[in-house]
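Schema walk-through. Below, the input block comes first and the output block second. Nothing else is stored per chain. Lengths vary across the set, and this one has 180 residues.
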Amino acid sequence: MSRQVPPLMDHTFQDTGWTVKIRKLSPFMKDDIEAALRSADRKPGHMPHPPMVAGVEGKPEPNESDPDYINDYNRYRFDLRGRVNEALLRAAIRRGIDLDGTDPATVDAEIKRFRDEMAADGLELPDEDTKYFFVTRICIGSDEDTREMYDALFKRSTPSREEIEDQKAMFRRDVPGQAD
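--- output ---
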């Protein structure tokens, strides 16, 4: 017995009006990304370590209250959070956003227009994956758009009345004569 995969849902970025198709994503994806980055950071030289000081009976102990270590550790945590957020955004867009319903020529034209505008101000933008660039620079118009995109990708959504009626039409009655 196989399960029918639900169709991709429309998501409109409220502040720009762009609409894309979305695929729901597992909330565990964020944990996987953070765990992978933390694991990579456990290699020597990636994570700050407290200086060793003479402890009880002269045995070396880590001094976790050292001000330089505290600053380094806080900077590391801030950097890690940024890397997790960037990796999550890239993975969410790669896995959860579908541009199949968007005309590729329109996508390319919007990206070119954006790049040309930035170049006119002397700003050279990095080469990015087309879908990532389009979603992050063209579709997302505010922090609220970003939060709403994450909510649409990772949280349960309430279907519209029309979507409910469409789903009901897909099911056949199990019992002859059953009331609608």
